[in-house]
Amino acid sequence: MHENSTQYMKALHLLAPRKTVLAELPVPKTPADGLLLKTRCVSICSTDISFYEGHLYPSEYPIILGHEYLGEVVDVGPQFTSSVDISVGDRVVYWGQTDFGGFAEYRSVRPVFSGEAKEDHFWADRNFFDDRRAAAVKVPESLGDLEASFIEPTTGALRSLLTHPPKVGDKVLILGTGPIGIIAGSVIKRLFAPHSVVSVDANPRRNAHAEEHFAERAHLPGELDRDVPENTFDYVFDALPTVKVTDREKDPRRLAMRKLKPRGQYVLYGASQEMQQFDTWLMLAKGLNISSAPFDVTSFPMHKTANVIVAAAHMLSTGIVDGKALLSTVCPFDDYGRLVDILANYRTTTDLKTIIDFRTPTLPQREPGVMEVDVLETNVLDGSPR
Fold first, then answer.
1. For all residues of the chain together, what is the average pLDDT?
2. Do the Cβ atoms of 346 and 44 come closer than 8 Å?
3. Fewer CB under 10 Å: which end of the chain, C or N?
């Protein structure tokens, strides 16, 4: 990058729930002890959709969505040191608590690689200590760009599984078979020696995906309720997003708790700042163990996640997690209308992972500091553009 001239990039700004704009912003400065990355691919996460829909919310707007990120090193800070050999042109994936910043042509990162003990803690506004640094891994040559963008979600699932693993011989239920459920089910099936792994999802196509990847049986909620006796499972992995049901008896989380054995383990993965229903009576009656991998970096330090992200990259490289089979859709970043349509209709899709591809030719540069004026707002009820 040229030090004496301001460079500009395009980024997808979220101005408020369901309101986006294609903005032109200055390229971030390279941190003295960090890296500047040129974006290659970013896969869409359910967290992005929760921010887009308003189930998660930042302290202030606007924000740049996107965090399942793959970038190419284009500049190295003068004070950057690392246990890993990092040079311009290397590909890097990071895992951080920050859910923002990915849907932009460049981003900066202060990485922590495996074997390092760097930290820069601060109190976040969402009830946990965060770190201005992010766990990172240099992407092996064996992984293509599209698969490499799945290292981040695999890291997230693996943090939960390693923190609260199923026991050998457990009967496991995966609750929700979107991408995270499929990643978690694949890892449990291949590495944790369960008795069995089954799943439940309201989407028949996603049930078919689950059976292709890991599930011995993929149930619809009604089938699970009708055909599976109570007190069947030892372990539940909850990968569901925000759930709203009018009949509490049909709430999938309550259903899963009924199917858990006494003292069964219920691991919560998905994040939502909207209150969700959990059956406190079943927790008491059965002594269920409700647990999660903490976001708080004083409890789960970023240098530990730096070890996890290396394992996640290995799982994709070796096929423990089938990255090629996870990929459903690739959308060029330049196709702004299609990108916003994907965000608006994500909850209704039968797809697995959608990747936003920044490697395609970009639109002509506009005058510095000018922002697009076409704000797309989508209908809250049906997700259609209006």
1. 90
2. yes
3. C
The one-letter code for the residue type at 281 is: W
Is the Cα dihedral 302, 308, 314, 319 positive or negative?
Answer: negative
Six-digit token string for 184: 């978690």
373 token code pair: 């004026």
Q: What is the DSSP letter of 250?
A: G
**Residue 118 exposed, middle or buried by CB count within 10 Å (0-12, 13-18, 19+):** middle
Cβ 268 vs Cβ 297: under 8 Å: no
User: What CA–CA distance (Å, rounded) separates 89 from 158?
Assistant: 28
The Cα–Cα gap between 198 and 200 comes to 7
CA distance 64 to 72: 19
The residues, any chain, with a CB within 8 Å of residue 347's CB and separated by 6 or more, are: 49, 53, 241, 383
CA gap 234, 262 in Å, rounded: 8
List CB contacts of 379: < 8 A, sequence separation 6 or more.
Answer: 385, 386
**289-344 pLDDT, tens per residue?**
999 999 999 999 999 999 999 999 999 999 999 999 999 999 999 999 999 999 99
C-alpha angle with apex 108: 8 to 369, nearest 5 degrees? 20
Pair type for strands 106-109 and 111-112:
unpaired
DSSP 282: H
97-143 pLDDT, tens per residue?
766 899 999 999 999 999 999 999 999 877 899 999 999 999 999 99
pLDDT in tens, 330-367: 999 999 999 999 999 998 888 899 999 999 754 434 33
Q: What is the pLDDT of residues 196-212, one digit of tens each?
A: 999 999 999 999 999 99
* Rounded Cα distance, 379 and 384, in Å: 5
The three-point CA angle 25-21-153 to 5° equals 85
Tell me which H or E stretch contains 309: helix 302-318
Q: What residues form DSSP beta bridges with 131?
A: 121
Residue type for 143, please? Answer: L
